[in-house]
């Protein structure tokens, strides 16, 4: 059993159509599945990028808040009351300026003793600041720094400080302090997917503020398994054991020691792709069933049509003239019409065969007549049998080239440039000595033979006696349209011009070649031929109607 038989066993057209529907639907389904997998992977990559971008956006929001606090401290540091240690006036002016805000200002000396605190009325006894290490770090670095979150002794709330070192009277540092819950208003999850959370983490790894589904209270240590991995300026953290089916994006707040993080389940962020998966599965099964049912219905219709066509073919084979049948399949109707017309087409085909045979006989006669005339002319001028044989062989070779060219073009004519190239190939030395110019066009079949014969004679004469007989000789062949008085139709002029060859003299007698290039060419193309035997080289000019050469 052959491979084709095993792959395509005998079965009804219905079976093959159903199989075709399945074979088309299944690869499409598989291809769409592959595209969805690629889409899911691309969406996962996009989700990673957007998660990191969300963390960066949150970090910029927190950075603006910290920068605002730092700006407030810079403005307050220029107050003359601090230089003059007029803390009462400074306290009153600062409290008035910050009224309605959630910020408080503290002035401390180098020991950390609070000199004033806008959380308390001026004159209320104050202790040392609750976060002396943060104060000392800022004084040591000489920069404005944000502290870790800590429990405030006065407010009793989780707070954080922004400390600016200062050398103004007794004041060693100005501190802007804010409750962590007030900062939490900036930590929003409105732009995040459902179930996602966000947080701000201080340098010590504690939560400053958080919001969302898994929000953490201020001061809560963030997962210590995750923190060591958050080393880049921003990025994404994934770990199937620590955060199963979840994604975490983080960003370092530029110029500060804090970080922002956003995290949540991947499924909620990719809910659309999951919906698409369900739609694909259900829709794919439904479409497959519809395709199978449709293929079965079409198979029944096609089977009936094929049987009707087969019956027509059977009756036609028995010699009957059948009428075309009308079916619901357009192609089947075309086949039926073709079968009905087959008997009439048979007679037309026979007529065409007779015509082709007649044309073949006609062309063969013309070729034989031309060959006979050529041999008679050559025989009159041949000096020897060998010379006669060579001359006949050369001319027949040129004729064969024309016939081969016409045969390759189905005897419909040929490009003028190809006619020139084909016949000059017989003279290899002419390749670098010949210049050809003129607009190409398609030549009539009968003109191909006559023009080829003329070109062959011109080239043969030049190789024997003219410019092509010496290495430095040159020949130019050109053609183009010209205007001739008293001529209503378009005229064409061919010029074969030789130069740099041996000195030319008018021949004392006319041979076969002269007859071809003058008399035969003029008669064949209904034109005029002029041959000038100039000392510097022969010039052959043919002027003829373009219609005598160009195929319509």
Automatic annotation (TrEMBL):
Source organism per UniProt: Rhizobium azibense
Pfam family, one: HWE_HK
Name of the protein described by the UniProt record: histidine kinase
Alphabetically ordered keywords of this record: ATP-binding, Kinase, Membrane, Nucleotide-binding, Phosphoprotein, Transferase, Transmembrane, Transmembrane helix
Reactions mediated catalytically: ATP + protein L-histidine = ADP + protein N-phospho-L-histidine
EC identifiers of the protein: 2.7.13.3
Annotated TM spans: 16-39, 279-299
Signal transduction histidine kinase HWE region domain: residues covered: 359-440
SMART domains, per database record: HWE_HK
GO molecular function, one term: ATP binding
Keyword Nucleotide-binding: yes
Gene3D superfamilies to which the protein is assigned, alphabetical: Histidine kinase-like ATPase, C-terminal domain, PAS domain
